[in-house]
Amino acid sequence: MSTTNPPQLFLLADHIKLSLLERQRAISLNLPSTSQDAQISRSLEQLRSGIESLESQTADADDESISSQLPRLRTQLADLTSQFSSSTNPATTSTATTTPNDPSLAPDFSAASSKKPRQPSKSVRFTDSNDDDQAQDPNRAALFPYRDDPDPDAAPDHTALSNQQIHDYHSRVMEEQDDQLNELGMSIGRQRELSMQIGDELDGQVMLLDDVEEGVDRHTAQFTRARGRLDRFSRKARENWSLTVIVVLIVVLVLLIVITK
């Protein structure tokens, strides 16, 4: 990455200053101080390359906004290089290292210049969203009923209890939880048995439906065959209707002759 304007170079110089202050503080606290040396060296080389790039720009075309900042940048580069290359004695820290170019970085410089090590937090507490947010959104309160902050009224006051009483209390709570888990396990077992019975009943119903389907198919086939026979008889009757009429008339004539005798 090449930095070709003074504001970026001043910002890079501030980051180098912070790194040097952290390095000096590590030395004062007898901590390893060489972990950032490679990064500081690369940043100094980048700052030097940026200044050379600005010098080449002003050589080609004079720019007052750039040329007026070059002496200050060269001075800071020399101070930072000297500070980095000097002895590891914290007392060699110069005012150029402790003064930021950007006033907004003053708190960071003040913290980095402090000789006191950062104290770790004694306790870590993760908090959920505000109660006001949950009060405004009842759906969220229903979805997230648990909180990392314990409710002081949810458990009895243990300050007046002895260790044995506290142990007995927690043992009783664990026994109650075990009983609840056993009841839950029994309920799940009953639900499993009921589900198996429902599955068996469904299998039986499927078998009955298969039998009904087979009976319907069988009776449908029989009905189809009977309908075919009726159609054939009807067709033959229409073809031989004249012969049938003659036979019927002959039978009637015979009956009349027999009756008249």
Automatic annotation (TrEMBL):
Keyword Membrane in record = yes
Q: Which residues cross the membrane?
A: 241-259
PROSITE patterns to which the protein is assigned, alphabetical: T_SNARE
Q: Which UniProt keywords apply?
A: Coiled coil, Membrane, Protein transport, Transmembrane, Transmembrane helix, Transport
Question: According to the UniProt entry, which residue ranges have a biased composition of type Low complexity?
Answer: 85-101
Please give the biological process terms from Gene Ontology that the record holds. Answer: Golgi to vacuole transport; membrane fusion; protein transport
Signal peptide (residue range): none
**What are the record's GO terms for cellular component?**
endosome; membrane
Q: Name the domain of life this protein comes from.
A: Eukaryota
> Where does the T-SNARE coiled-coil homology domain start and stop, copy by copy?
171-233
- InterPro entries from the xrefs? T_SNARE_dom (IPR000727)
Localization, per the record, is: Endomembrane system; Membrane
Protein name as it appears in the record: t-SNARE coiled-coil homology domain-containing protein
Task: Give the source species.
Answer: Periconia digitata
